[in-house]
Amino acid sequence: xxxxxxxxxxSVSAQVRxxxxxxxxxxxxxSHSLNIYFQKDSTKQRDVIVFIHGGSWSSGKKxxxxxxxxxxxxxxxxxxxxxxxxxxxxxxxxxxQASAQAVxxxxxxxxxxxxxxxxxxxxxxxxxxxxxxxxxxxPRYFEDLGIKNPIKGVVLDDPFGLDMEEYLANAEKxxxxxxxxxxxxxxxxxxQAGSPLFYVKNSNNPHLILYGTKTYEAIKIQSERxxxxxxxxxxxxxxxxxxxxxxxxxxxxxIFGSNQLxxxxxxxxxxxx
Length: 273
Fold this sequence. Notes:
By secondary structure, the chain is α/β, with parallel strands linked by helices. The chain has eleven helices and eight strands.
């Protein structure tokens, strides 16, 4: 079985090209860099996905998700996996600003990798899901870059922190709470300003929202609320609940290219016109 896995991994590597450590914000800092996974094909432009990793806003790096980039690229999707600055060195706002800069860079340059800049999708897991929806829904981040929101559709994979005001106001004061306070401060007004659900009225692009049946209750509650609010605004939204999956499992299952989440996501792309 292990040998078969190695053969499969080699096959993927042989078909997919990778360009690493591209600096998207005019600085050589690793915190503002991305990797691109693609197949060279001049006959057509492919859909593009920008992936923002999770890690409680204080950990994680793009290199961890090489398998996600390769799996998507093998399936014909040009993929950018980004780094962004982390707490305690950065606030949520600085993380969002960097994520928006990365999206702008991809929009401006992805055609060189066979990607269609008009078919740019955004995906995030956990805290990465929060950042995805925040820069999508709060208009200031792309306005500050002098561009319109370029995101064709959003994929939220077990997103954490869609309503940080609600969460931090009610959360147990444990080490997780203290970790989040480093990112969002102790000011409840900042919690609201950093909550994507506060800006949901601005979201008008299609959404695919995924969460696991064994994930955190806050994720279940807020994902359901996001989906209902989008549908109430007549925004195309699909919610899929994945049986038996915990929070980390909602992204780690995608190590395997045959995982059902890829089908859900690729079908979502096809539905978005």
